[in-house]
Design brief:
This protein is α+β, with helices and mostly antiparallel strands. The chain has two domains: 130 residues, no CATH class; 135 residues, no CATH class. The chain contains eleven helices and ten strands. Strands 5-9-2-1-6-7 form a six-stranded antiparallel sheet, with no helix packed on it. Strands 3-4 form a two-stranded antiparallel sheet. A two-stranded antiparallel sheet has the order 8-10. The longest helix is centred in the first third of the chain and has 35 residues. The radius of gyration is 24 Å and the shape is elongated. The protein starts with a helix and ends in a 9-residue tail after the last strand. 25% of the residues are buried. About 2% of the residues have low confidence.
Length: 278
Amino acid sequence: MPAAKLESISDGIRVKSEADRLVTLTAAKSAATKIATDPALVDRSVDYFGAKILREQKNREDVAKLTVEQLRIDPPTEDAETEIDEDWLNMFERIASEKSSEEMKEYLAKILAGEIRKPGSFSPVTINTLANLTAPIAQKFQAVANMSCEIADVAFVITSHVPKARENGLPAYGISYLDLTVLQSYGLLASDLNSTWNFNFAVGKVGFDFGGVLHAITQKDPSEEKTLPTFKVFLFSPVGIELRRILALTKNEEFSSALAQWLDTQGFALPRAQRAED
């Protein structure tokens, strides 16, 4: 992407300047002084709202700077065919102004960068869900995502090798049944934990993302005609899929090894796969 175009994007997401903020604070204090009868109350009010305005401004600017960094690392390959929806931007700006956590700012920057590359990539529901996540819930979602696969725009956790996963969750990997229900309540997992997924279309043909690493499922003996059993899975919701894509995934090796052992008993293997450009 040309430098001028990148700077144009930066300008587009940049908000008020330092001079604008000082003018706003000065005008607010002047107006309050004229109408208030308690100077001490005025000072406290101005201090409070002044600090709030500055804090929100800093949060927005931090997200803007991180977004530009994301775009420099992974610039758009072509101009987007549509503009980002104005209502979407208004909602995003409001949420970005409220988030002081560095981790949350990174997430928001990835979302905004993704939306700049391809408007419509992230729904307003996804942004609201991210804004409402507590740190413990975000950590549980990260743990589940580290065990998940994505292929053909569907994300899921394979549970065929985990006894009674539908009733007990994945306690051996730090995820209880209660954790799953909480993730469902946040709209990150599908409401039905009894889902299945037929993976035979991909055996030996299509690589898939497994905990951030490209894998494939292959027959151990290609001369045999085998059919892969239908997987039992926990499906991610559309919101969960979108948020999964902004996470830095670290594949759960213990979970992966257990899945590979189960596949081995079925006559299949779980090797890493090469990307097309490798």
